[in-house]
Amino acid sequence: MKIGYARVSTQDQDNAMQLIALKEDGCKRIFEEKASGAKFDRPILWQCIESLKTGDQLVFYKLDRVARSLSDLLQILERVEKSGASIKSLTEPIDTGSAAGRLMLQILGAMAEFERSLIRERSIAGQREARARGKQFGRPLSVDEATASAIVDEYLTGLHTLKGVAQRFGVSPSVVKRLVYKKTKPSYRS
């Protein structure tokens, strides 16, 4: 039996295109998940894999919907193979029923991981460059600099809790915590 798996990263994203493709391919059962692929803890994926029986085929739209790293991919592949099932991607030529197919799957997984690493490196380099030019990241302070300084000084006396300082200045405890951390950890950038 063909068992489908569709995943999108956030609640705002739509997996309709994946679902249509999986149904057109003949999937009798489809597991849907809304979770970041960067997280290894994807309960619906593991539930899907646990449901596989000998002769079943796990079908997904694209490799990056199932695995985000080569080690992740290899672990998933091992669990699928232990169940006696195989893997099929609708957009990549993957057939894990042969040694060549498993090799192709591993090469594609390594290339996907490499591409994500390059994107991450470029993003970090861009952020460093922007910081060097004076760009401030994150939300602007909800209080002026004088109030921020007073909040930190009040907390650092040790006489008040985060919540107490927050109530006194009319801000949330997370604002107090962020301001204190920013002042006490000079390398921290908000």
What can you see in these coordinates?
- It holds the Pfam family Resolvase.
- Belongs to the site-specific recombinase resolvase family.
- This is Recombinase family protein.
- The chain is of the alpha/beta class and 190 residues long.
- It has two domains: 114 residues, Resolvase, N-terminal catalytic domain (Rossmann fold), CATH 3.40.50; 40 residues.
- It has a four-stranded parallel beta sheet with strand order 2-1-3-4, with helices on both faces.
- Strand 3, helix 3 and strand 4 form a beta-alpha-beta unit.
- Helix 5 runs antiparallel to helix 6.
CATH class of the largest domain: Alpha Beta
| Number of discrete domains | 2
Structural class: alpha/beta
Give the CATH H-level superfamily of the largest domain: Resolvase, N-terminal catalytic domain
Outline of this structure?
This protein has 190 residues and is of the alpha/beta class. It has helices spanning 16-24, 43-51, 70-82, 99-132, 145-156, 162-169, 173-184, and strands spanning 2-8, 29-34, 57-60, 86-89.
Descriptive keywords:
190 residues, 51% helix, elongated, Rossmann fold, 11% strand, alpha/beta
